[in-house]
DNA sequence: ATGAAAGCGCTAACAC
DNA sequence: GTGTTAGCGCTTTCAT
């Protein structure tokens, strides 16, 4: 009588082969092989694997195969909903393409050093391709590996000429909002342009530009550090009270959210007294607040990134940079411009 | 003259050893070895590795070592901020402990089949331990591997007697809120108890119990499917109008958020006419809305989960189940009970 | 269509 | 303190 089966993780392909009465080579071919295998042999091997609870050892496999088809994702901050959604969508698309993906995150949100560690974790696993969803890693850090593993940078707007990039078209998105504000009849608006966040700064600048081009007067508010939302907010309230603006544009939904209590406190009705716009459209449940904002095309970016990756896996091509437009969300925080005073 | 260095990923430890003028074994010892190595040898090896851009091959390493110290995380839905934060915190704690972690997510949010695939991805990598942050995988699916790899289930309240669990104390948290509502003088409140979400149902039931124990009359509202928030909300509005309640408790901040527009539409002031409480305290920026809610202790759970994991890595001990209390967030949506009518 | 055998890059005894 | 050597579990020529 047979002994009790050992723990599944200890079952090797050799054991499966024996159980199925074939050679290790044949067993291997059944699972991933390129060469054809007789149908009944195939059945036998599958049955044996099932019986033993065989879990293929990815380590051994990719070592022997000199590489794997597992893709890696380096994600900057999983606690940021925009990245969380991107992770989720990439995973879905990768699986849809019949590929696998593992994800790593740096141990801290800031610091190239930590991102490097995470990158090495992926490289150490000899992934077959990498999605990089963080702006902190410089292209230079990626460069040495480019010829061995396809890299697709996703999300961040900027990238290296040798690296494939699929990004949100922040300028276009900002313009969508600027257009909406102008079209609602506003002739003078505040735009929050943070100094310390690269992407938010870019958004703010683009919104200001879009307004100006449309003949809307812009009052630029350089919001101070992220923590103290109060400052910029109070400036906006003062501008409204002085009758200098009828709308305020924020470079993220979060900042708009932070402003709401101030507006309420100041007795300003939205949008009757003051129209407001955000940016991102990601925060779960935020739609319920009725924000007028632009939804960054996370799903599209994920889909395209995977398509680009698949193409790279087949055959390396010249790097391309794609910019994906978002969609305007017409909420209740943007209304027609009131008559001032 | 030497040829140009090959791609870093092609550099093997053998190459490093040659470059440093030592044997492969010594090089190995320098990187992870248990046996001591002469200081100047050590330097030489590090220098050689640096020069060549050596990236250790994790596959080969853990194959030879029959296992790795890389931990795996199976996370249910990275696009859910609560899971995103948990991911982030686990990563920070794992790194803090000098360990590595890779994360996998199922390709779709629902379906045991997809979670199984993700689980196998982790198992295939022969991780040294696993964090499981999903309720969908049944303990039975985990059971076959328990003796080979330590498993810590984190977040979900329920778990198997053979598996370590670190969870949020939902009952306690619900009671915190019930206490706060009762203490504010409310004598009659609505409690939303969804039928289709296990954890939300549990929360709702516990809140109702807590109120009842404190002599508060409970109007249970069985919110229908998740999509149509309207239904339950309208029932609450009606209850308030009929003068039957002065407060409403929701089993998630999201549901509370969904109710806000309805309350506004109905002309109900919060909290003057109606007090509201949520549950979770996670959604970034939600604090700005002034929700009275309970913050689930994600950071504590992550920290404890890693501590438990480390203990398991050292020596397998009897499984323990921990329940972690959250903290009450006193926001502006809970006020003193108004006189009815 | 299948089997035999040679590694993949590394670690872990075991010698010296 | 360092080198030698035998595998880890698997894929992949090369035969048959």
From TrEMBL, chains A, B:
<protein>
    <submittedName>
        <fullName>LacI family transcriptional regulator</fullName>
    </submittedName>
</protein>
<dbReference type="Pfam" id="PF00356">
    <property type="entry name" value="LacI"/>
</dbReference>
<dbReference type="InterPro" id="IPR010982">
    <property type="entry name" value="Lambda_DNA-bd_dom_sf"/>
</dbReference>
<dbReference type="InterPro" id="IPR028082">
    <property type="entry name" value="Peripla_BP_I"/>
</dbReference>
<keyword id="KW-0805">Transcription regulation</keyword>
<dbReference type="GO" id="GO:0003700">
    <property type="term" value="F:DNA-binding transcription factor activity"/>
</dbReference>
<keyword id="KW-0804">Transcription</keyword>
<feature type="domain" description="HTH lacI-type">
    <location>
        <begin position="11"/>
        <end position="65"/>
    </location>
</feature>
<dbReference type="GO" id="GO:0000976">
    <property type="term" value="F:transcription cis-regulatory region binding"/>
</dbReference>
<keyword id="KW-0238">DNA-binding</keyword>
<dbReference type="Pfam" id="PF13377">
    <property type="entry name" value="Peripla_BP_3"/>
</dbReference>
<dbReference type="InterPro" id="IPR046335">
    <property type="entry name" value="LacI/GalR-like_sensor"/>
</dbReference>
<dbReference type="InterPro" id="IPR000843">
    <property type="entry name" value="HTH_LacI"/>
</dbReference>
């Amino acid at each position: 009588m047979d002994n009790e089966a050992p723990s599944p993780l200890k079952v090797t392909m050799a054991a499966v082969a024996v159980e199925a009465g074939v050679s290790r080579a044949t067993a291997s071919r059944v699972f991933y092989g390129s060469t054809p295998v007789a149908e009944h042999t195939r059945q036998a091997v599958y049955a044996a694997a099932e019986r033993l609870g065989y879990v293929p050892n990815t380590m051994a496999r990719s070592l022997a195969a000199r590489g794997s088809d597992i893709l890696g994702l380096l994600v900057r901050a999983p606690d940021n909903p925009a990245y969380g959604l991107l992770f989720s969508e990439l995973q879905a698309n990768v699986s849809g393409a019949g590929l696998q993906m593992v994800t790593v995150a740096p141990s801290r949100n800031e610091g190239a050093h930590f991102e490097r560690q995470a990158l090495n974790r992926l490289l150490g696993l000899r992934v077959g391709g990498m999605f990089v969803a963080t702006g902190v890693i410089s292209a230079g850090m990626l460069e040495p590996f480019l010829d061995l593993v396809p890299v697709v940078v996703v999300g961040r707007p900027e990238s290296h000429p040798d690296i494939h990039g699929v990004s949100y078209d922040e300028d276009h998105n900002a313009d969508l909002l600027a257009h909406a504000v102008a079209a609602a009849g506003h002739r003078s608006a505040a735009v929050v342009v943070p100094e310390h966040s690269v992407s938010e700064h870019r958004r703010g600048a683009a919104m200001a530009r879009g307004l100006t081009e449309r003949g809307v007067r812009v009052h630029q508010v350089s919001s101070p550090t992220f923590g103290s939302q109060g400052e910029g907010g109070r400036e906006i309230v003062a501008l409204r009270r002085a009758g200098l603006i009828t709308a305020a544009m924020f470079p993220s939904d979060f900042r708009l959210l932070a402003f709401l209590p101030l507006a309420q406190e100041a007795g300003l009705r939205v949008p009757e007294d003051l129209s407001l716009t955000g940016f991102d459209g990601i925060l779960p449940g935020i739609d319920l607040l009725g924000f007028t904002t632009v939804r960054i095309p996370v799903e599209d970016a994920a889909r395209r990134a995977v398509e680009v990756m698949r193409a790279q896996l087949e055959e390396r091509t010249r790097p391309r940079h794609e910019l994906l437009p978002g969609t305007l969300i017409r909420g209740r925080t943007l209304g027609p411009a009131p008559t001032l005073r």
